[in-house]
Amino acid sequence: MFEIRTDLAVEEKESFPGKGTEVTGVSLREWRKAFSKIKLTEVAILDEHGAKAMGKPKGTYITMEAKALAKGDEDYHREVSGELAVQLKRMVKELKRQGEVPDRENIHVLAVGLGNPSVTPDALGPKVLGNLKVNRNITEEKTVVLSGIVPGVMAQTGMETAEILKGILHETKPDLVVAVDALAARSIRRLGTTLQLTNTGIHPGSGVGNHRHSLTKESLGIPVLAIGVPTVVGAAAIVHDTISTLIQTLASHAQTEKTGEFLEQLSPEEQYQLICELLEPEFGALYVTPPDIDQTVKRLSYTISEGIHMAFYPKWE
Fold it and tell me: What is the pTM for the complete model shown?
């Protein structure tokens, strides 16, 4: 299967024939709560066969699709924050049940804002951390302890994020990491309107082909929950999304009919490869972000930080 880079498990699921429910080792559940505009999808990768088919680690991926996130409706954003809090608490409860996180109220959570604060599409993590009310230095004994760090990017620090975090973990000994990062999507309609929560950790830069050291339980020694929103999409993916329309248009005109027929005979893999061969020598691995990304990232940073507050501070709701 050809690869159009994406960080979203729901998009990997959609790349399979049918509804994507026939993939061995992968379970799918979709639902929408009464009177809610938020669509939720849970993709659970159950074993190594499913992980290989999906190209993602074994674990649970919850996607919240909320088209109105693109607007500045505070009530709607608060609804999304509340749903994020529900799903965060659900994942933490499961980690406690499995004995991976201590079964007590005052767990220590380290929030990590991944990305480059100087590059707006990559600044979601740092902006979320800027909104968080950390309390490790002032906390009461029965309250969740929340600390936070923005480790920057390797070009700024000369260090891998995983290296920085291992030092922090050694000194502060948190029970759980919650990492926030900007993601890459396969479809432009998901930019700024889709939120993914997973218990598999995070792989910085993987969606744009920049593979850095993973932040997972295996690499850090404690569970890692990851929250992300796609802010960029590959130019080749945009072109690929419109290829069927292009084929129909070419085939409908006598002068370009043979070109349309040629493209139609290509498999999806061959079509995507052709697009990459045409675009990348001219433009490189080009990624596209919406023109209003500044406001989008600012709004989403508050939405996610509020969700984290609601999940871990009982009096916040």
Answer: 0.83
